[in-house]
Amino acid sequence: MAIKVLLVDDHTVVLRGLRFFLRMQRDIEVIGEALNGIDAIRMSETLKPDVVVMDLMLPQMNGIEATRHIRQHLPDTKVLVLTSYFDKDHVVPAIQAGANGYLMKDIMPDELVQAIVGVHQGQVQLHPGVTEQLMSHLACRPEPEDNEPNLESLTHREKEVLRLISLGKSNKEIAADIHITEKTVKTHVSNLLGKLGMSARTQAAIFAVKKGLAE
């Protein structure tokens, strides 16, 4: 079944280019286009896309607020940020809002397709420098110890799942790597997010990198 994609960008030329290329892909179906954040939310609620490709600088409502609303109200819909802005003032709020990926608009078309598929499968898709921006932000603003997520609250299996999440692996790939069912992986992911007090897989991945689990 094709991945249902909603495109969100206020530049019609960008939308036209994305639509033209993505509609040539057998596994992707472009089901709608929005020019602002409010329409992005409205169309997401109506069309129930699998993935929303979201610009950040939008009229009426920016992409970060639209992402937050979509991820809170449509948890099965993934949001892949596609933007020209690469600084912590945009990266950090987007990830905190629940974005499942953060890429730059200069990405190669084939790489964008792979990212859409990866996000749909539950993988974290980040521009190479985004992790560095997030790590820099965390280093400059350490959380109080009382509010720091407790890695030791996780079981050995949950830590292993978290490590594989930080490597960008999907639930299916994690299941194959540690020889359990995909359903069991989903349970572990839900449990570890709850224990860490996190709502997004991307947050957990960054936390794992910070704690050195990805090494």
From TrEMBL:
Q: Does the keyword Metal-binding apply?
A: no
The record, for Pfam families, names: GerE, Response_reg
List the lineage, top down.
Bacteria, Bacillati, Bacillota, Bacilli, Bacillales
Under SUPFAM superfamilies, the record lists:
C-terminal effector domain of the bipartite response regulators (SSF46894), CheY-like (SSF52172)
- The organism's superkingdom is given as Bacteria
Query: Which CDD domains did the record assign?
Result: LuxR_C_like, REC_NarL-like
Ranges where the Response regulatory domain occurs: 4-120
**PTM annotation (4-aspartylphosphate): residues:** D55
What is the protein name stated in its UniProt record?
Response regulator transcription factor
Provide the alphabetized UniProt keywords: DNA-binding, Phosphoprotein, Transcription, Transcription regulation
Domain HTH luxR-type residues, every copy:
147-212
